[in-house]
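Service request form, structural biology core

Requester: graduate student, group of Dr. S.
Request type: structure prediction, single chain
Budget code: on file
Notes: please return the result as structure tokens.

Sequence provided:
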Amino acid sequence: MEKLDKVTELLNHYIDKNVAFFTSRSYEKNISSIIDPYIPNYAKKRIFYYNNIPSNFEIKDLQNGLLFFKKNNIDIIFTVGGGSVIDFGKLVNFFGNNNISINDWIHNVNKKVVTKNTNSLIAIPTTFGSGSEATKFAVLYDGIKKYSIEHDFILPHISIIDEVFSKTLSNFQAAVSAIDAMCQSIESIWAVGANDESISYASEALSLISPNIVEYVNCDRKNSDKIALGSYLAGKAINISKTTASHALSYAITKLYNIPHGQAVSITIANLMKYNFQNNNHELLNISIDKINNRMAILLDSIKEKTIKDGIKKIKSIIFETGMTVDISKFDINKISQNVNIERLGNNPVKILRLDDIFIES
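Core staff response, request fulfilled:
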């Protein structure tokens, strides 16, 4: 994996280019002191900064970023931050370089006009959970409606993974991010879209994250190198397999109840583990029972457990010990169901007939 000294090398390489740093609003407070020493003084005069990126950004926010991109004739983008920031930079690079209307794209118009892969996008994650630095898709909202924009050209050209940024995170931020990566790994293993390569990435990610996440969150980012690598591998896994029901439900939960994404995903992950592996009488979605059983064995081996019951117990324990437990008593399940992401739901190996089966302990 590339470390931060790669920033200096790249800026030297792009010596005659206009460079944009897309960053979080907390960049000056938390991140600049870490990354600035790697920016040569001569390069600073041609770097443009953009930090007006809200979490779970919407179309209007992206349009503002595109105006900035065009106004300053940006050639190279460094996108530095958590999942939303990296997704934002990915989409500015994609839409800006191909002159595609965002609304046309999400309504399936003119998708064939994508011709330009600039190899000019560098992703630097600072929260270690989204895996966005390793994926060819990005999340965009229009109000409560979530779109997953996907294309091979959206994948960052270079990812710089340096665990030093973990020191800037609060315990809660660290937990929300790392729990997302753990859930991605679990979902990727059982996903209908998984293959041997994605399962290998996901299993390794889960083997790195599950034994280290509690100490990472609660003990001053201990083993941050393992969490950073695990998050990156989880991203590589879902880049192939995509996510499943926990993520499909999480987007509505985040928008309706203002629960951070990783925490929203964790709400259903343990119940889905039980549902997917102990509900063999339910309808399977383009996957055999033998494959499900094989993937269950891989998942359990990755978290060093022998039975589904013990595996579920471990996942619940991790969620509790990292402070991610959520009171769902006031959730309106019908409202969540109306805003579920159908594509990701269809990637779950077992058909979900009633959301009560996922939200309520049986």
